[in-house]
Amino acid sequence: MAGKRTAGHQNPFRISGTVAGAYFTNREAELARIVRTMREPGAKLLVTGARRIGKTSTLERAVEAVTTAGAAACMADLSTASTPVDMANRILTAANRVVKRGWAMALREHLAHLKLSVTMKPELETGLPSLSLDVSVRDSDPATQEASLAHVLDLLNALAGKRHMTLALVLDEFQEIARFGEQAEWRLRGVIQRHQHLSYVVAGSHLALLDAMQGKGRAFYKLFERCPFGPIAPDHMAAWIDARLAAVGLASQDVGVQCVTIAGARTRDIVRLARKCVDRAAGTRPIDMAAVEAAFLEILDEDADGTQRWWAALTVPQQNVLRAVAGATTGLTTRTTQQQFGLLASTTKTAQGLVADGVLQRTTHGAGYAFDDPFLRGWVVRAALPDLGMVIPATFIASPTDEYGGRDTLSAPRG
Ligand SMILES: Nc1ncnc2c1ncn2[C@@H]1O[C@H](COP(=O)(O)OP(=O)(O)O)[C@@H](O)[C@H]1O
Ligand SMILES: [Mg+2]
């Protein structure tokens, strides 16, 4: 497909991993807030926002800005950690990359002093010594494991203090700490709270979990200031997409508006659709509405394998609820919807389960629930609604999300 494009043009949209430079747009206010926190000793900020909205990219830009200004900042991704020791290792590795060589030795000595054995070996990429707690620590009891995480943070604080500097720690997917129980949360609070030479920016996308962790009587109550990430304003997104297309010489007819309308509120989904439009663009023909729809369908095809497997593993009541959310224009508990989609008395419970799984979210529109993923919605509309004799365009949106805060998705398309 890419061969059909005007030769020599890079796709101006990226969706793998995080984005930087010209591939990144907007977020000035959030960036300024995060950078300010990072530079303030003892400051603590919690960045929250839905998946694919652009948190990690913005956090990386913030680390970059602080580092460029000559201060120390690093980011550890906690999403895959299975134990508190894994978290400690992630943080050690991240910190060790930004601070001066002397730190690795100091860290090792201190950790050894605490009877925490450390492995030190040169990193493949940088050749700098990398540190990790010995695997044996992973097998120790929970209290010891949690203590190792606390020790690592304490040490970083102490070393930063000794050098009269502030080290900014960014901990992405911070809610994973909840896996280790409330005890671990309390221990971490105690540690974080007393550090005056570190600043903490923690981030997460599991909003319900993060809210619970900060509830009254819970460990992180009133510990962090909050920085919520909403969608980038749809008008901005649309204009940015059109400008990026123009920059690579691609003519477009309201492609930006179309992408935002079809793909919803999450930055990655919108960019993914725009990227696919460029992949499919042929010669000098402008990308029009039909082309955006075709690009959307192509993405559904790309995902079809995984989506089909996911669908097959669902229960029948779950499948019916998802069909209803995709196609119904009235609430799930109304008689019309119940009859049309074969819903049971337990529908609300089923829908709530799908919310907990991250497949659906609550909304005030249509069926009262909306898909988290517009491409999943499109697949259900196209592949599973025909089971009920309903044949409607895959781009049909029965229940828009409330993520744009009740505003209309867009001001009227131009032209
Ligand atoms: N500010 C932005 N400008 C342009 N694209 C973005 C922006 N933020 C996110 N994206 C798109 O979304 C993708 C995922 O972003 P990411 O930062 O990983 O989101 P999150 O951490 O919230 O899940 C990026 O690869 C990019 O395609
Ligand atoms: Mg992320």
What does this structure look like?
The protein folds into three domains: 27-229, Rossmann fold, CATH 3.40.50.300; 233-309, Orthogonal Bundle (Helicase, Ruva Protein, domain 3), CATH 1.10.8; 314-388, Arc Repressor Mutant, subunit A (Orthogonal Bundle), CATH 1.10.10. 48% of the residues lie in helices and 11% in strands. The chain has helices at residues 28-39, 55-68, 84-98, 101-113, 135-138, 142-162, 182-194, 207-213, 234-247, 255-263, 267-280, 289-312, 316-327, 335-341, 347-356, 374-384; strands at residues 44-49, 72-77, 118-122, 129-133, 167-172, 198-204, 225-229, 360-362, 369-371. The strands form three sheets. It has a five-stranded parallel sheet with strand order 2-5-6-1-7. It has a two-stranded antiparallel ribbon with strand order 3-4. A two-stranded antiparallel ribbon has the order 8-9. The longest helix is centred in the last third of the chain and has 24 residues, at 289-312. The two termini are 29 Å apart. The chain binds adenosine-5'-diphosphate and magnesium ion. Adenosine-5'-diphosphate binds next to helix 2 and helix 11.
